[in-house]
Write a structure and sequence with these properties.
This protein has about 130 residues and is an alpha+beta fold.
């Protein structure tokens, strides 16, 4: 029996780096290992990031031309993790990497791409950067 398109797509994601966002303002970045009928996601070699809330208007300086910089997001290694599907809000697949780039370098690139204040600049990695 041939696999369905959904099964084929999930198989294509195996061992790829996923960014999984949750309802409590956290993001998990790790290798996709499996999922189940309840949409729980298992990631290996995962890091957790707490996404700070955007600054409230009352805490911003009075001058609009001043730029407020928040500290960069700090990763916390969590290893093998199950992210309950009930709390998943968004999933992103990291782009295809150049064959000469190792995983550690890919993670450093993604950490630099994190945007403080509640977001991630998403760009597919392309060879020849």
């Amino acid at each position: 029996m041939d696999p369905s398109p959904a099964q084929s797509y999930l198989r294509s994601l195996l061992n790829r780096i996923l960014h999984v966002y949750t309802t409590d303002a956290r993001m998990f970045v790790g290798e996709f290992k499996c999922t189940d009928n309840e949409s729980n996601i298992i990631l290996s070699s995962a890091h957790e990031y707490r996404i700070p809330p955007p600054p409230s208007p009352s805490t911003l300086p009075a001058t609009a031309s001043t730029t407020v910089l928040s500290p960069p997001l700090q990763p916390r290694y969590v290893g093998l993790i199950v992210v309950p599907g009930l709390y998943v809000t968004k999933i992103e697949v990291e782009g295809a990497l150049d064959a000469g780039v190792d995983r550690a370098e890919a993670m450093r690139r993604k950490e630099r791409a994190l945007v403080p204040g509640g977001g991630v600049r998403v760009e597919e990695e392309k060879g020849g950067e």
